[in-house]
Amino acid sequence: MDDALEVIDRNQKYFLGVLSTLVVLGVIMVYSSSYIYARDIYGNSSHYFYRQLFFIGIGAPLCWVISKTKLSFWLKYSWFFHLMVTLLLIATFIPGLGNEVKGANRWLYFGGFGLQPGEFVKITSLLVAVPFFEGFFKVSPRERTAQGLFIVLPMLVLLIQPDFGSFSISLGLVAVVCFLSSFPRKYFYTSFVVGVLGIIPILISQPYRVRRLFAYLDPWKNPQTSGFQIIQSYLAFANGSIFGTGLGNSNEKLFYLPEAHNDFIFSVIGEELGFVGVFSVVALFLALIFFGFRLVTKLEKKSSTILSTAIIFTIGFQATLNMGVVLGLLPTKGLNLPFISAGGSSLIANFIAVGLFLSALTERKKTIITHNSFEQFSTSSSSYINEDKEFNHSPSGRGPGQGELF
Prior knowledge:
- This protein is mostly helical.
- The protein is 70% helix and 3% strand.
- It has one domain.
- Strand 1 and strand 2 (104-110) form a beta hairpin.
- It is globular and about 70 Å long.
- The protein starts with a helix and ends in a 14-residue tail after the last helix.
- The relative contact order is 0.14.
- Mean pLDDT is 87; it is low at 396-406.
């Protein structure tokens, strides 16, 4: 058991080291990709840099607090948190609270700061899905139906906003939890097929999604409209070549590449740091996923294992989707790069997810320490009993080597 504790501690240090590297790299690249844009829009070239530091200052302590809290607490009150996030999503449609940006009602504004509730739906959907699928047959069909509808309710609101990216990831997370749980496989595969068939009409229901799909197939057909983003991204990677143009020397971020500090920050990395930078970022995410899954294998509770697996999966999945989009391997979709892209809601949500993962690890380490303490107590007690027996069975009861004097 001591070896297990040592393995967890070592891999947790590696995991947090890689995570810290990604966060630091994100701060650097947010400043590099946004300082000209921020200077022209806000009159302060460090605007996004300070915002990123501010949200790290919120997210990192929150991650630590959650890691020190029992995971059972978050699972017990998961339905409450899911309800709160759902209400926040609905509030985005209320005039004065919500704000429409680029045709979507995704934001709430409080005192100059924006909050995107959709980022937190991913976390709460994951939390409620674990007890739902694990206890699926322990409740009545009526309760199952009510709970299932409540899980998908915020996802339906995401479609109305619309925020198809957050909807897809949230639905994917629920599917992952369902697959890992005790939910019968025959029902899972049936639901999966129905879900995939159901997404197809959603994809083609909006003209802008269809345009994005055609732009993905042939971006050069409409280079000034639907294909503009991906073409500029191609140019950024082409300019970067092997070693890049140098930190801060990107041309595409000069109002050519939309969302250079957010969704397309990976393109700026490719231009300024070249293939070396791109490879390094990919390697960092692979290392994060590797150490994350190594830690998952050391967990014992099924709920902790399912939750932690889904958390590591979603970080890797979202990173893969973002890189795939900016490289032209996937249709264009507004998804940021975890821990690197600018964005407070996404950054805080990711820190919360990591905090839940660390909470599961903390719980496991406490179990190992308690077990080791019990074993040591049992060993010492057994040793004492053996010594006492040896003493009592010795000649005249005086202990070993103590014969009678006369």
